Amino acid sequence: MKRKQVWLLLSVVLCTFAFSCRKQVAAPYDINFLPEGDSVYLNAQENLYVNPLLSRKMLKEALDTRQVKDSIDWYILYSLYIKTYLVTSEFDSIIPLCRKTEQFCARQEQLTPYHYYLLTDVNNNIGNRYAIISQNDSALKYFKQMLFYGEKTHNRKVKKSAYTNLADIYVRSGHYDLGAWNYCQALYIADSLGLPEFEVNDIYTGLGQTYMELRDFELSHYYYDLAYKLFDQMDLNRKFVYLTNYGNVYYFEKDYSHAFELFKKAYQLVSSSPEYAYAQNLCRLNMGECYLLLGELDSARVNLNECYSYFKEIGNTSGLYHAETQLFELALQSGNLGMAAQQLHSITDNLYAEPTLVGIRKRYLQHYYEETGNYRKAYQYLKENTAMDDSIRNDQVRMRVKETELRYQQDTTLMKQRLFIQEQQSSMKSLELSVYIWVLVCVLLFISVLFVYFYQKKQRALLMAETRNKIITLRMENIRNRVSPHFIFNALNRVMSHYKESDSNYKELYNLIKIMRLNLRLTEKLSITLAEEIDFVRTYLALEQERFDDSLHVSILIDEGIDPEKVELPSMMIQIPVENALKHGLRQKAGEKLLAISVVRQSDSIVIRIEDNGVGFRVQAGNQDLQSTGTGLRVLNQTIQLLNARNAEAITLRVEKSPQGTDEYPGCLVEVTLPDHYSYFLPEK
Description:
Distance between the termini: 18 Å
Strand content: 5-15%
Radius of gyration: 52 Å
């Protein structure tokens, strides 16, 4: 096993252990959609209920100056801009403004939680618009849409607001059980988020209103008292809603003086701001009714006439319905039956009126028919009022049943949570045990890897020793196949002393001695430079040229981009193929003899080609590793194999028929490919 394989195995083991112990990362939840760093948004939100017109002006300037208008950030500012129209009771402007946001979301190819947040805001604004003017069915439709899109935002605060709005509209419509259920859902979400109490007081107020409608005044006071603890932290809108609704509790308890005080405080909150015209007239209506019930008829007339004119002007059917009812009772208490009869004939029924307002009108109609002596009609309204009271009592019973069911569901949920926690604890223990097992397995594997590593290291050392011995043996074999150079040098030097340098025999002897000296020096090296190898080959060819006369044509080409002094190759890499070409291929050929040597660069390698047009170089069939193609090539091939074992990229040696050959003279091509950065180092150990 090689060192890389050992480290690869170790890496796999450690990665497997890390994967088995990794923690699950929770998916993002409760995204914050509001631009907390946007000073314009924060200032406008702060002034929304204090000075909505200023808030609208700030937002309008920001929207007009923003460079990117078709973006999420722009429409989040735009949604707050729409709310200013809701606060100032400009209801006709709200729906057209909201449609622009809907069109923006419809243009998107894929909706994100941010787009769904914008859609929840659209449905919230439209739903509140219809809720204020008592069109409860339309409000319910849009609040349900708000909850639908709120689920897709994955934001629990948005869902809490949707449940609160649904609860409020159900209570207004007389579906008190559904209202209480949705308030409890909102309260559960608030608890799960750990919200501070000041963000829950609107739920307390809503539950107080629900129990007030059911005439369970004890629970109603309980929830209003919870909300009052945070009264100072409420914004203007929440304070107004709290005072108005809590005043209704005292009204139905027939404690009209306390009710009047709360309605008066609510009026004082909004009286200085003309943009709160709707809230002001709602307070006038409530105060006028209290004046009426307290016997202060003049004050009642002033307040009721003012609010009646306002509600008629804006077309608020719910406010108009209740104001007409109070003016009808005012005429009765003033003893003006003719005016009362006139009011009775001008009164129009409102199918969307809240059950509480309907009950008040029927009580006043019973009073009217008693005063006019029509006891049959009076008795009829008495039965209807009694039936309504019975219905309220039935709602109380149904409410208690729903509370019991809800508590049972909560207990069941808590039990399931405990079981889930126990299962998770068991899973954690199993996980801890599995971690210990994995640690033990990894330790054992690590020890095994170390053992294999040191064993392979010892085996490699033995293999390298064998390699060194084999190289020495090959070198000795190469030397033994040649005549002792020292003896030849001494003999040839004595012979050369008998010739002059101008003699042709002197040149031949000089080349012979040079080639033998080079051969002796180069055979001691495992690798030499290309320049040394080419010099040796040129000397050898010059010596052999005399035997071939003028029939031998030699060409040596080296690419200009190759520096022969820097390129290394195994010794005798070119010399042995050249010697074989002359000895076996060209010597037996008649006519022109060609020998071409080329050194070229190809990608990250250098390619050396030795090609001749001789009789060919026969390779034994099935012998692809050239083990028996001659002593020189065999030694060269074995040296290459030893060196390749130490390198990632191998030297390749290929011997084949020359592409330019013929049937009579097939020629021979020897091609050697030398990879760049090839190492010729063989360690001693």
